[in-house]
Amino acid sequence: MTIPTLPLLSLSDDELGILTMLRSDLLDQRFKLELFDAYFNGEQLVRDLGISIPPQLKTLHTVIGWPRIGVEALDQRLDLEAFRWADGSDPSDLMEIAEANDWMDEASLGHVDSLVYGREYMAVGAGEADGPPLVTFESPLDMTMDWDARLRLARSALRESQGGQLDLGLAPDERVVSLYLPNGTVYAVQTDTGWEVIDRDDHGLGMVPVLRMANRQRTADRVGRSEITPEVMSITDAACRRLMGIEVAAEFFGAPQRYILGASESAFQDAEGNAKSAWETYIGRVLALERDEDGNVPEVGAFTAHDPSGQTKIIDLYARIMATQLGLPPHMLGYTSDNPASADAIRSSEGMLVKKAERRIRRFGATHREAMRLALWVRDGEPPEKSRRIETVWRNPATPTIAAQTDAAVKMVQAGILPADGDVVLEMAGLTEDQRQRVSAERRRARGADLVRRLTSLPEDGQPTLGATDAAAGV
């Protein structure tokens, strides 16, 4: 009689092979991702050309935060506000899951990671007992995925972390992995003899509960690319070297160099005949110089001081090139002209940035919708109907004026295209999701108060007169 191997205690050969493959990919990509992170945080090492920087100033480090400005300028226009059903049904079940997972705030962190690293991951799992599903945003530094390009689904995913989990009784220095498979999730810890399974979650979904939020995808590259491109890194390094050159010039040429021709040795000695230091000689406001043996007065002059304007013009050139690469208005990078731009010119210069934000909203919104659908699947035990589409509500990435938005909404109502009391009008006017909900609640209270007022003042026949608004409200 043979004793079967308990799947809870060890990884199968297939699971071990998938874990090894995914972990190799994770470690292989980590160096490049950390390089993007260094440029975003201003911690990159600028390569010195070894020409103009003396050895004494090798430790001088200059930082210019253009990559961070470019990423944050795009991220600031990606504000996820709410989820809703496309058919207009009550979205309270969607918002309950979103609020339980602090989805809106966590989404902003995920967007930044996706823009910096080129991708971000979202994992969905069962929450606490009788609680909503758990949705987490995972950094690509800790997670990777095996992607099926034909089916556009994940075959498997891996999350690795170091640090004990108190609920599993692990030590702080133990390395833990979560292996996501189509029909279950395996949790294992690294030991001296290999990987030891500590828990299994056989969810039976038939798909990996992990989604990838990729930035700048292409048909041949579904992983995504960072906004910190090689061009951005090259220009950043060049600008940092230029700033370093200005610092070096300030050390050597910050004070104008003087020269004295025809002076005797006593001019550089004190009253006791000792030689003065170079600094004492330089800072002397008045140089009392005697005539030489022929009666000539020594000639004193100064070299032309170093002018950094040439260097600053080159930095302005780099700023304009960087603005083109990042799709930013030049004034966001500190480049200004003598004639300030008008408000219309500024909005026009933001056109490329707005279009980039709209494209990211389309791609990121699809990932958020799929994550919410997967969360409903985990909660209900069955996938939601495909006919019921989920929509994501985003704040307008452009910067139109309130007057222009309101005017457009009023004209749509006057033309009879939209109802005056509809939610679409409020959205066009620029109100946020919370503000629209408050307006809807105030309208319901106003209709209720109006109905009570009319009921308390009945006509002689005792029958209240109900209008179209009352009929629409179900009165």
Describe the structure.
The structure is a single chain. This protein is an alpha+beta fold and 475 residues long. 41% of the residues lie in helices and 16% in strands. The chain has 13 helices and twelve strands. A five-stranded antiparallel sheet has the order 4-5-6-7-8, with helices on one face. It has a three-stranded antiparallel sheet with strand order 3-2-9. Strand 4 (143-148) and strand 5 (153-162) form a beta hairpin. Helix 2 (66-75) runs parallel beside helix 7 and helix 5 (230-253) packs antiparallel against helix 7 (309-326). The longest helix has 30 residues, at 351-380. It starts with 12 loop residues before the first helix and ends with a helix. Residues 471-475 have low confidence and may be disordered.
Task: Indicate the topology.
Layout: H1 13-41, H2 66-75, E1 80-85, H3 92-100, H4 103-117, E2 119-125, E3 134-138, E4 143-148, E5 153-162, E6 175-181, E7 184-191, E8 194-201, E9 210-214, H5 230-253, E10 258-261, H6 278-283, E11 299-302, H7 309-326, H8 343-349, H9 351-380, E12 390-394, H10 402-414, H11 423-428, H12 433-455, H13 468-472
Antiparallel strand pairs: 1-12, 2-3, 2-9, 4-5, 5-6, 6-7, 7-8, 10-11
